[in-house]
Each structure stands twice: as C-alpha cells, then as structure tokens.
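Milestone 3.1: sequence recovery, worked example.
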C-alpha cells in the first residue's frame, strides 16, 4: 500500500455543488452589471434634471379627469412651470411618430411593436391642467437605453444623449410666480404616491 497513489474523485454531490456555486456566482455577476448599468443611466438622467428641479415626486397617482386614475412616472417643479418625465429603458433602433398608435423597436434584427408613449404622457398633461391652471406643463418621453431614431425623433421625445438640448425650451420660458408653487401643493394634496417596485 505504501507505493499506491491516492486519486481524489469527487462524488456527484460535490460536482453538483460546484456547478451550483458557479451558476450562482455567474448570476450575481450579471445582476451586479445590470444594477451598475442602470445606476449609471439614472445618474446621467439625474445630472441633467438637477438644473431644472426645485422639487420632484416619483410615481404620483392623480385623477385622470374622466373618473379614473393615472400614474405619473416623474413630476418636477421648476421655476418655469411643471415638467412631466416618462422614462423607457429601451435599446435598439426606434421608429415612431406622434400620430402613430404602434411604434417599432428593432434590436438584433428582430422587430417589436409597442404603444405610442406620447399618448400616455399627453393624457397625463391633460389630467394635470385642471390641477395647475395657468401653469405651463412641459413634458418629455425619455428613452434611457442605448437607442436611436434613424428616421427622426418625434417632438417631445428624447434620448439621454439629446435630453439636455431638448430641455432648453424650458429655460426660454418666462419664470413663474407663486402660481407654480400653489399648483404644486394642490397636486401633492390631491395625488398619492405609489411604492416603486425594483
């Protein structure tokens, strides 16, 4: 027995455990990369918007004006009125126009349809108007993923790369008096915040 070499042979339980650890580690790396990517995009969006905001509320539910409720992704109080922002983390080539009901996303050679996001944000603007009479309401749909509009970007639509330039129209508007703040307080009294799920 002295000259015999002992060879370690992992049993099937050990092999399964090693595979499970490897899969778990891989999943953690993927989730961490996604989280960091999302955080970077969110930081980029915040950096652009901080020049405009005096106050902000996320996921606000308000009456839609026809007996129902509507959720606003992001509502910002500026010194020139209110700014509605709806974000979409879509990537790829995007095609759409204001009057078209279905827009198209092309990614990896595949085509996907999605509802025109301008319809929702325009309805949100109309729902806000009775709560903020005489206060300008600006709005933007912002695509935060790596996306572009090869056939032209519709009005009131931005990508993270174009948002800063697209918001210049707000800086050209006249500053508001107390009416914006009063409208803001009314909206916060009437609306209710929802809990965001991440």
């Amino acid at each position: 027995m002295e000259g015999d070499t002992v060879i370690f042979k992992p049993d099937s339980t050990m092999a399964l455990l090693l595979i499970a650890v490897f899969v778990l580690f891989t999943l953690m790396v993927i989730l961490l990369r996604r989280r960091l990517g999302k955080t970077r995009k969110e930081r980029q969006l915040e950096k652009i918007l901080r020049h405009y905001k005096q106050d902000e509320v996320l996921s606000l539910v308000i009456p839609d004006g026809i007996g129902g409720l509507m959720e606003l992704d992001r509502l910002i109080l500026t010194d020139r009125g209110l700014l509605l922002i709806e974000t979409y983390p879509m990537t790829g080539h995007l095609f759409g126009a204001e009057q078209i009901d279905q827009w198209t996303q092309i990614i990896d050679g595949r085509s996907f349809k999605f509802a025109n996001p301008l319809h929702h944000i325009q309805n949100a603007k109309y729902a806000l108007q009775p709560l903020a009479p005489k206060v300008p309401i600006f709005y933007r749909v912002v695509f935060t993923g790596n996306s572009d509009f090869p056939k032209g970007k519709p009005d009131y639509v931005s990508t993270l790369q174009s948002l800063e330039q697209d918001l210049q129209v707000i800086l050209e508007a006249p500053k508001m008096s107390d009416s914006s703040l009063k409208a803001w307080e009314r909206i916060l009294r009437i609306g209710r915040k929802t809990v965001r799920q991440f």
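Strands lie at 55-63, 69-78, 81-88, 92-95, 102-107, 110-115, 137-143, 147-148, 157-159, 192-193. The two ends are 61 Å apart (CA to CA).
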